[in-house]
Amino acid sequence: MKLNFSTSTFFLTSILFLSSLTQGFAQSSWQSSDYRKENYRKVVVLAKTSNPGAKRLLEDQTVAELQANGIQAIPAYSNITERDLASENAFIAKADQLEADALLVYNFDPLTSEYKNSPSVNANLGIPVRVGIFRGFLGTNVPIAGGPKQVQKFSGSVSFYNRQSTDMQWNLGIGGKIGSDRAKLARNISKNVVKTALREGIL
What we know:
Helix 1 packs across helix 4. The chain has one domain: Double Stranded RNA Binding Domain (2-Layer Sandwich), CATH 3.30.160. By secondary structure, it is of the alpha/beta class. It contains 4 helices and 8 strands. It is globular and about 40 Å long. 41% of the residues are buried. A 6-stranded mixed β-sheet has the order 1-8-7-4-2-3. It has a two-stranded antiparallel ribbon with strand order 5-6.
């Protein structure tokens, strides 16, 4: 049984999916001083949003962009279940099965909108972890839809985790204007994220 996105165990947040990016995407990035690029077997792509359609769109687009650049990647929505997140040991076992060594995760701030939803906090927040790619699945959820009004701008970040460290290894700020083409927005975001990760030696 695949993950139910309405539960607090595995909330996924990404802003794009009300509409499409027009301008102002890339922002500043940070990289751990201890990070060393490795040959990862597979990268899991996770878009944290309570909208399952939005999650699938961004994860699929980012996976496609990674694979177009010779990097094996898989989306979280079709590979990680709620049961896999029951404990870190369960997650590590699933990661071993998937041959997943790294995680690219999208997180977003509340939308700039006339209507705002309160974040829903994951019950697993703050628990100690040993493997960084498990840490990326924990956290808060920011719902995408806030009301009938169209959102004008978004902001957020993309983080990278691997199995060799317990903490985040790279973070890229993202943001921009929103239009009406969801697929174009997903393509623009994924292309910019992957391009920057490659240029900065993360992947």
